[in-house]
């Protein structure tokens, strides 16, 4: 085993969901910023990066966020809270940025097959997937088309508005995991929380109506008794299948 693999294994094994943080120990808020830089490097669908991260440091605001999280210990004792969210309404500017980057990369070679495929993807396919579909009509038509085309060849099946939301939250969760591992590498602990009043929390942090919260992560130095029980995982043989 490579030394780097052993180090990563040790880090993963040391990570726990810590429910109580120590208010007396020092805490470096810059560790959060460094870990968020790692979050930005997470893999994400089509490199659209439709996410945003809200860092809550101020004591009064942090306690209000904790109330939105039903005053869980992991929220009300956290030294900083980070809210991971997705921003589907920003799809157009992200697609334009990606297309512009491709033009720069293929400057003078815009007719190259790879460039043409990429332009088609960001200028035609992405708009077809992301354009406003509140009533679900476009998604239903895409689903029908996918089913029909899939009768003769492999086809992407997850094309509805709901599928798109799932896709974005998967990307945001990957970013959150990078962040959580980064914080552990910094010597701090975290707790990812899905229990919160999303409507109140969005209002409190001034999020756009279309923004959706993926999770809230509490951060800080581990307090005594912060881990509530021994780790339990089901046997690997029951979930790892080799084909």
Automatic annotation (TrEMBL):
List the taxonomic lineage: Bacteria, Pseudomonadati, Pseudomonadota, Gammaproteobacteria, Alteromonadales
Species annotation: Ferrimonas pelagia
Superkingdom in the source lineage: Bacteria
Which family is annotated? Answer: Belongs to the nitroreductase family.
Q: What keywords appear on the UniProt entry?
A: Oxidoreductase
The protein here is known as Nitroreductase family protein
Per the database record, which ranges form the Nitroreductase domain?
14-220
Q: Where is the signal peptide?
A: none
